[in-house]
Amino acid sequence: MPTRSLLRLGLIAILACAAPLHAQNFTDVKPSSQQVEWQDLEFGVIIHFGTNTFLDREWGDGTADPKIFAPTNFDPEQWMRAIKAAGAKYVIFVAKHHDGFCLWPTEQTNYSVKASPWGNGQGDVVRRVSDAAHKYGLKFGIYLSPWDRHEPKYKNFAEYDNYYIAELQELISNYGDLVEFWLDGAGSEGHVYNFPRIIENLRVSQPNTLVFADAALFEYGDIRWAGNEDGRIPYENWNVLDRHGYLRWRPAEADTPLRKAHWFWHPNDETSLKSVHELISIYESTVGHGGQLMLGIAPDKRGLLPEVDVKRLEEFGAAVGKRYSGNLISNRVRNATTNAAFDGDPNTFWSAPAGSHHAILEVAFAKPVSFDHSLTMEWLNDGQHIQHYRIEAWDGKGWKVLTEGHAIGHKKIDSFRPVTTSRVRLNILESSSEAHVREFQIYDVGKN
User: Fold this and answer.
1) Which residue in 14, 17, 111, 311 has the fewest CB atoms around it within 10 Å?
2) Cβ pair 104, 125 in contact under 8 A
3) For the chain, how many structural domains are there in total?
4) CA atoms within a 13 Å half-sphere pointing along the CA-CB vector of 224
5) Quick check: is 433 in a domain?
6) What is the CA radius of gyration of the chain?
């Protein structure tokens, strides 16, 4: 996975789907329905598999013989079962990395699976992966590297732009609806990609696909890179991005590999596998900060996920499920006014009084409960409004602050010292307009 560089763009483009020009305040900007749906997915994976897998490389130089690509037991359904067990909801597949080797039988070059012995040159990895994803109920997306270290046309801007668009057209026309398209700027030095043309072509065939891009590609993306490959979204995380006074709804997606610093499979690499504890920390620093987690996985030379990777993904999914399956509030509150925030159903939400800038959601228990985490979700269809909040517990004499923050956004997970109380509340100290809360939950995860 390349380090994304700030691109030196030689032009300014205005893209359809940009935020309305009249929205001059952060709180005026609202997400599209596609962005709302995408943010609810929360967790996806990106899959790296190609000639690099067989050469112990992260970045290929475009000289690998296609015959090196020869998986002996290619089974993307095995990948999908592990991905589902981890709790992911969507899959991004790297159809072409920077080495230029295409994992579908493109008509644009022979540097593809057509020239490999796998499937007697008749195979289509992208097809098999997309079919497997759909079979297991996972949404599917594509990464198509603009940088191509093999294709001779790359040195000629106009010729390569036509080549890339032709490849893109094949992918967006033949593999069903795409949930996300990764637009990566690596290798841009000396080559100004025709981003307006790329996005225009994508939108014609796939109008609902969201584009992931670095914040520097402001006009072209619907999703922004979090700025690192550590799986961390710095708090505070706001969904609206400001570039030169122009505002857009750009939720963050944080990518990180399952194996430390390795996106492709490498032999004798068992010590790089991240622990369940590390993965939980990553989850709470991405999804728990209102963003999206994109975890990188890598099949081996067999075309299978290593058994230890499968086990770790299953352990991770089980750990998250156990950690956040014991909501102490759900089904204990019977208040018609506020129950939508406590019912465990993110499809319902509670609204503070119209025009208000402060509100309180309080829960009283028949018996004291002990907890050390809270989970709060804001209903974002109308924009991100909560700007300052506290989680507070009644200590018998007054309200004790357990934690305090500003942005909530899609989901905010807070941890604090264990507390036992019969009353807890979400105190919204400041909101730009009336607050909308999908869920307020508390958990005792100390033993998990």
Assistant:
1) 14
2) yes
3) 2
4) 22
5) yes
6) 23
